């Protein structure tokens, strides 16, 4: 209650309240000043409130006293139970742990005021989980309460923990949580076989490396503590079998190390030991952590394929062996109780296999084609053997045939085939070391010999020195060589091998003479260098070449001027050609040379301009078909032409046909153009002019004047 000294109890004073919670949590009676809580209070929500109060005159509304501030504290009561904020809990502890082994610490929180009374003092206890575990009532630490708890007996435990306030007294509030505790495994159990003997049946055809059976030892432990290693105890069958551990099932997988044969041995017995990989020294006193069992294996008889006597066959044959020659044999047997015959055949894979054949019954291998070691030096193929009683059962073996070499190729010089010698070489100087190569397969110790051919051994230029180690040296036999006298020497060398039959060949070594310095270093081997003066500088050579070029230019200009002068002397006027005498002394170039000289001055200008037919070249065949034979009186002209033609054909000094000149020219005024009077008759009375009718329309007037027969134009073509 608030009260002002100025309040006389007559209702002249009014009380007001402001601040934290005023009007919502607290209210004040304006007349009496009593403060009331209008809703429930929670200390855990708000522990105190700060308020301000004032007395005001009812009439004037003016404060009668200054505003005063006061605090209302909420007093705590035990209205909150302890709570496990991190629960439920999960914990683990190794099995076989001693009493008092730490497991986990739990913690409960009480929202009540820890400074006021015992409302927030918590005490822990176990409601469920005894007698296996215990808890400290003050700290909440959980520990084991029993020794040697075995995971294999019980692995999971659920413990119920209670936390109670008021120090655990009657009337206190309590909260609970669950703790799930797991016993972790330790290697406290050895592996054990469920039975002492394991029986297995294995076919004799089982492949090496295949699994033929499984055995298992039981270990109640978990994880790596249950990992088992299996080993075969040395003894019967230990060298034929092997055992490994399946990492997923921890089973022992028995595998075959060597092939089984029912006919050799029908049963095997051996022992297998199982042991843990990860041991715990705390439990050595329990006993050995391993166990032993016996494995008996019975071999089952199976129908097996034939077995070759060797895993691989190697044979040899000479390359000149005739076709059909037997070079070897393969052998396979049926080892089963009821022995069966065996048939052989080749495993055809490529054309190479066709070089050999095999006898199906005896297994002998023979050549089928001629062999060439230089083409193929080794053949590799497979032979298949099958049982006659069961052809599906087959076995295969590889056969390697090496082709032996026969000495059929002569040796030859290895590169180089050309060498050089200095002009200043001394006698006995080695200018080149040569070796030989043979296409044949050289056997160990084969030797080559070198010598000069018989025709070269007498020449005093070079010799061959055989070093007896498949090499030879080319030596000089005289003092100095001259490139001007002879630039190249060809040295025939005979090379023989040591195989049978002996093969030899003659190889020519080219030796070039070169200019060298005093140390023997080659300076020049060019052919052009032979003719150059020794000691000329580069400038002198350039000057010589320049002079040669100038002389050539002068000669060319001189020849061109002379030809121009000759052209000027030719005919300049085509109209008065008769008075011009043309002289020329150019030699013709033959029948096909039409440009050797200008014979235009000898041509008929009329023919050139109108007919465009050149008389200085061999004309194309142009003939006029005549319907009547030529007159017999024309034979004198024909004989004259034939005579002159024959004379020119046999005369080597006569000009070619394309240089034939026109001997006479009548002029442009004649209708018939030119009429030649060569070899004409003495008198006109002796002349028969009937042939003029055969010469065409241009001679029509003459034919009418001198001929007795009239001219018929239809007969002219």
Automatic annotation (TrEMBL):
Keywords attached to this entry: Calcium, Cell adhesion, Cell membrane, Cleavage on pair of basic residues, Glycoprotein, Membrane, Metal-binding, Phosphoprotein, Repeat, Signal, Transmembrane, Transmembrane helix
Compartments reported by the entry: Cell membrane
Highest taxon of the lineage: Eukaryota
Protein name: Cadherin-12
Topology of this chain in the membrane: Single-pass type I membrane protein
GO molecular function, one term: calcium ion binding
GO BP, sorted A to Z: adherens junction organization; calcium-dependent cell-cell adhesion via plasma membrane cell adhesion molecules; cell migration; cell morphogenesis; cell-cell adhesion mediated by cadherin; cell-cell junction assembly; homophilic cell adhesion via plasma membrane adhesion molecules
Pfam family, one: CADH_Y-type_LIR
Predominant location category: membrane
Domain Cadherin: 4-84, 85-193, 194-308, 309-413, 413-531
InterPro entries: Cadherin (IPR039808), Cadherin-like_dom (IPR002126), Cadherin-like_sf (IPR015919), Cadherin_CS (IPR020894), Cadherin_Y-type_LIR (IPR000233), Catenin-bd_sf (IPR027397)
Organism for this UniProt entry: Agelaius phoeniceus
Transmembrane segments: 530-561
GO annotations of cellular component type: adherens junction; catenin complex
Described purpose of this protein according to its UniProt entry: Cadherins are calcium-dependent cell adhesion proteins. They preferentially interact with themselves in a homophilic manner in connecting cells; cadherins may thus contribute to the sorting of heterogeneous cell types.
Source species taxonomy: Eukaryota, Metazoa, Chordata, Craniata, Vertebrata
Gene assigned in the entry: Cdh12
